[in-house]
Design a protein that fits this description.
single chain; about 100 residues; mainly alpha; two-stranded antiparallel sheet
Length: about 100
């Protein structure tokens, strides 16, 4: 029982580490706005959107596990961050 719990918690920790790593390596493409040299707009969001969707699935998978206990606070924080970022991404194109 203890071994199973530890193994499952380790798997969840690895999944959370994957989420963190993907966002550490994420880059936004920016393009100059018209002829301006100091104003930029976001370029293609396909890679960022794919990363967002993939990491949201991972976080939801972790949250759905009965072994999430020790990681609950960290995973809740990531869930909150990803939801906020998703909402921002939905609104951003309207601002450009």
């Amino acid at each position: 029982q203890i071994s199973v719990r530890a193994t499952q918690e380790n798997i969840l920790e690895e999944m959370l580490a994957k989420v963190k790593a993907q966002w550490q390596d994420a880059e936004f493409v920016v393009n100059p706005y018209k002829e301006s040299k100091d104003v930029f707009i976001l370029g293609s969001l396909e890679d960022v959107t794919a990363t967002l969707e993939e990491t949201q699935v991972l976080v939801q998978t972790i949250l759905g596990s009965r072994f999430v206990g020790p990681l609950q606070a960290q995973v809740d924080e990531w869930d909150k961050k990803l939801r906020l970022f998703s909402d921002t991404m939905d609104e951003w194109p309207q601002c450009q």
